[in-house]
Specification:
Distance between the termini: 27 Å
Oligomer: single chain
Largest sheet: 3 strands, antiparallel
Helix content: 40-55%
CATH topology of the domain at 31-94: Ybab, Chain: A
CATH architecture of the domain at 31-94: 2-Layer Sandwich
Shape: rod-shaped
Order of helices and strands: HEEEH
Radius of gyration: 19 Å
CATH class of the domain at 31-94: Alpha Beta
Number of helices: 2
Strand order of the largest sheet: 1-2-3
Number of strands: 3
Structural class: alpha+beta
Amino acid sequence: MKDIGSLMKQAQGLQAKMAEAQANLAQTVVEGQAGGGLVRVGLSGGGVLVAVTISPELMEPGEQETLQDLILAAHADAKSRMDAESERVMKAAMGPLAGMAGGMPGFPGLK
C-alpha cells in the first residue's frame, strides 16, 4: 500500500490536471444550430453565448416567432455539445481515475 504522502502528491497532480482542463474548456467555443443551419450560435466553455448567425431568409415579416424558437433550439444544441465536450476533456484529464471521481469531493460532474 502506498504511503499517504505519495497519495497526496498524486491527488495534487490530478487537481493540477483538472484545473488545466477547465482552463482549456473556458477557451473552447462550440457551435449549435437549428432549422437545418438557418440559425447558428456559438457557446463558450463557460456557457456564455458568444455568437449568433441568422440566415437572411429568416428575416422576412411574420418569421419572428420561428426565429425566436430556432435561436433557443440552437442554444440548447450548443449547450448539449459543450456538456459533452466538457465531460470528454475532464475524463481525459482524470485518466484511469475517471470512473471513481464522480463521488469524490472536488471532482463533480463525471459519470
